[in-house]
Specification:
Elements (H helix, E strand, L loop, with lengths): L4 E4 L3 H13 L4 E4 L2 H10 L4 E5 L7 H10 L6 E5 L4 H9 L4 E4 L4 H15 L18 E3 L2 E4 L4 E4 L2 E3 L3 H12 L5 E2 H8 L10 H13 L8 E4 L3 E4 L2
Parallel strand pairs: 1-2, 1-3, 3-4, 4-5
Antiparallel strand pairs: 6-7, 7-8, 8-9, 10-12, 11-12
């Protein structure tokens, strides 16, 4: 599966080398040097996937992401960042990004993440990438947490919770398997379509972000870690 990719990075060497690598993989690519050019290009011919560098002059990648989400544009976004702190990565997720990749990155991993984004945003035959059961849209309920696959709405004790595409898919997977401990490799395969290996904390970042939105202000915590194994949702 291929799709049109927009790459926005102010580092010319990275931008051009990434564009060449993607084109060799069969992706049509538009490469721009800053956020303003990215917004202009998106308005002219909408891409299937966006790769945005966080730090760009003028309009940075986070701002581009916020502007698009405010406009209701749900094009999948992969953020590139040279920063390694969790708080910096969380900022990208909070802006509405679907995934992030720290620099320097492995090209094979970047390609795998692009393929995973395309699969998740182009589901086959109406299937849900996150769920175990195809075609079942009944709301999922664990304690006072409710997730509606049909409307993609999430509430906790009646309080609406806004989630990105990746966060929603991850929570749906956990809730469809409530009480079952899902191992890291299973979650990576279902959500990203690629196991990033034991050195990656990508999953841990998303889990921590879900906890901030779902459990932080609640006495009863629903998202649990089974150390060395994986994660589960239970009351």
């Amino acid at each position: 599966m291929t799709g049109r990719v927009l790459v926005a990075d102010d580092d010319r060497a990275i931008r051009e080398s990434l564009a060449r690598a993607l084109e060799l993989e069969g992706y049509p690519v538009v490469a721009v040097p800053d956020g303003a050019s990215a917004l202009e290009a998106i308005a002219g011919d909408k891409p299937d996937v966006l790769i945005l560098d966080v730090m760009m002059p003028g309009i940075d990648g986070l701002t581009v992401c916020r502007v698009l989400r405010a406009q209701g544009d749900q094009t999948p976004i992969l953020m590139l960042t040279a920063r390694t702190e969790t708080s910096d990565r969380v900022a990208g997720l909070d802006a509405g990004a679907d995934d992030y990749l720290p620099k320097p990155f492995d090209l094979d991993e970047l390609l795998a993440r692009i393929r995973a984004l395309l699969r998740r945003f182009r589901p086959m035959d109406g299937a849900s990438d996150a769920g175990d059961v195809i075609g079942i849209d009944a709301p999922l309920v664990v304690a006072d947490l409710t997730l509606d696959p049909a409307t993609r709405e999430v509430t906790r004790a009646g309080r609406p919770i806004t989630l990105s595409k990746t966060e929603f898919d991850l929570l749906e997977l956990l809730m469809r398997n409530a009480g079952v401990v899902l191992v890291h490799s299973t979650i990576y395969d279902r959500i990203w379509g690629y196991d990033f290996g034991p050195g990656s904390n990508n999953l841990a970042v998303y889990i921590s972000y879900l906890r901030r939105k779902i459990d932080a202000d609640e006495d009863v915590k629903l998202i649990h870690t089974v150390r060395g194994v994986g994660y589960t949702v239970r009351a």
